[in-house]
Amino acid sequence: MAELLQLDEAVRELVHDGDRVALEGFTHLIPFAAGHEIARQGRRDLTLIRMTPDLIYDQLIGVGCARKLVFSWGGNPGVGSLHRLRDAVEKDWPVPLELEEHSHAGMANRYAAGAAGLPFAVLRGYVGTDLVKRSETIAPITCPFTGETLTAVPAIGPDIGIVHAQRADRDGNVQLWGIVGVQKEIVLASARSLVTVEEVVDELEPRPGAIVLPTWCVTAVAEAPHGAHPSYAHDYYDRDNGFYQRWDAISRDRDSFRDWMKENVG
Amino acid sequence: MSDYSADEVMTVAAARELSDRTVCFVGIGLPSTAANLARLTHAPRTVLVYESGTIGSKPATLPLSIGDGELAETAAAVVPVPEIFNYWLQGGRIDVGFLGAAQIDRHGNLNSTVIGDYERPKVRLPGGGGAPEIAAMAKEVIVIIRQSQRTFVERIHFRSSVPGSGAMIVITDLGVLRLDRDERELVLTRVHPGVTVDGVRAETGWDLRVADDLEETDPPSEEELRVLRGLKSALAGATA
Q1: How much is the ipTM here?
Q2: What is the pTM of this model?
Q3: What domains lie within chain A, and their CATH numbers?
């Protein structure tokens, strides 16, 4: 059974220094409020795992929470670079950042293998690319039935997986819809999980196409209204594309980034 | 109408490569602009697939990201991300993959990862994302990239994606190139209005091959420019 907790106590209980942490949400339902709580509590030496680091990891990297990043596309969608990520990789600021780089297909399959309890996933991927040379987590494998050479990637099993969702009931059953990304996979692949929700309701009305994560596969649920902003929660509020564009200027400079974090995150 | 920019003729030329009813896997930025332009002009039944899992999206305005809410709201289906890559892309259901890149070499290899050394890059770029598998699995790949000595290079700094067995077309702000499968080399097949072969060669970092039957791109029509400008101003207005 999932515990209903306040966001600050959930992060205190579930996220520890040195953890392998995945905050997921493919453009949609990114758990910004939880990420900001991790920053406020000053976690250090985290391995941050996420297909698209997005602004949330730009912020966590910029305040020095991360030691390593496992990812597949590290940009500001439709805008340009993630400047804090770039500063960490290019100039070791504020601390050096180790990279483990994959493709989207590889990351998605690594999560799916984690959810399925398998040690690795198989795909036709990465062939001919330099990603193979740069990663110890991409290896060729021969199909035992056809002899075809395929690519194996190890499962990802984070210590803690965090996602945002539209709502949960008081028993901790979670419901989410719209672009569902890898939300289910990361919750099932992680040793512990935290789901932040727009609202806790008495009863989850069934919705076509929605995913339900049963309470017994979630560690904790915390209410965090507007907790995905500037990402979005389908049927609650839209993606704040203007903020994604403004982030480019805010994050370009170390001081203006720090000022913004101090003022808006604390 | 004769007044249009090099970027506009590039986007229009890219849109024209997309025929109706094709299933197109779309990257964000220029590819998404071109694919939506095609859908709103000559190819209304083109199926746009975004890596966020939206299949058959019909956005009225250009999305800023590959996962804007409108892409899901207007989609025929929304599927999980592992599924979009495994069942739909790897499963061989994508006709055209539409990609951008920071660098390209004469073989059609693309770099979207780093400028400089991987360990200590001069510029850390976003990375491959969906491109490694899109380039390998789509039946045809269309690349949109502005052409210069910085982007058309003899040696790319990182191979983020390499062509698979399908066809490859590269659309630039100067012309159109096709990958010759036998020679594994890009060949200039078309120049945009007002562009010379010497002009293209000057912006190419290798000794460029030119087709014997070189063609010239038809200028953008008023309709194409009107729809393209409408898409771009709606995006700018929505994010102002």
Answers
A1: 0.96
A2: 0.97
A3: 3-102+157-246 (3.40.1080.10), 104-154 (no CATH)
